[in-house]
Amino acid sequence: MSMRLKHFGLGMAVLLTTGCPQGERVLGNGGFGIGSSGTPATDALSFTVQPSSAIATQIITPAIQVTVLDSLGNTDPNFTAAVTIAIRANPVGGNLSGAKSVAPVNGIASFGDLSIGKAGAGYTLRATAPGATAATSGSFTITSQ
Question: Largest Cα–Cα distance in the chain?
Fold first, then answer.
């Protein structure tokens, strides 16, 4: 009986490896990898609602959203670490105001009250969270009126 289980397990490993080229993950976040180092997969952050141009000191609308993606590119609803946002490219020394650290809800962190106090073109934002790869937004402009 144990010989059959051993061969069955070997056959399953071959089948899974064949079905997962280049060592891709078999399971989502925290799963095991076939043909890779076997370390748990890391999540990645992605701006799913990019910052739009706005007027200095006014709230950027629509609300900026950062989604936590698992190793397969799916939203990770179990991710609980706070997502923090900051200015990455700051062409004129503007300050970011509002709630800059948000707990994701079902894998999505919404930043609904952010504003930048100084007009300038070429701003970008950077989202970070422990256990996830950071993301940088597209560039946007803050106008004086």
Answer: 78
Domain range enclosing 72:
43-143
User: Does 77 lie in the same domain as 16?
Assistant: no
Element (H, E) at 7: helix 2-19
Give the residues across from 128 on adjacent strands.
84
Domain count, the chain: 2
How is residue 118 written in tokens? 């100084």
Q: What is the pLDDT of residues 73-103, one digit of tens each?
A: 999 999 999 999 999 999 999 999 999 999 9
The Cα–Cα gap between 5 and 16 comes to: 16
- pTM for the structure as a whole: 0.73
Q: Which two three-digit tokens encode residue 10?
A: 């070997």
CA distance 129 to 16: 31
**Residues 62 and 126 placed together within one structural domain of the fold:** yes
Q: What SS3 class is residue 56?
A: coil
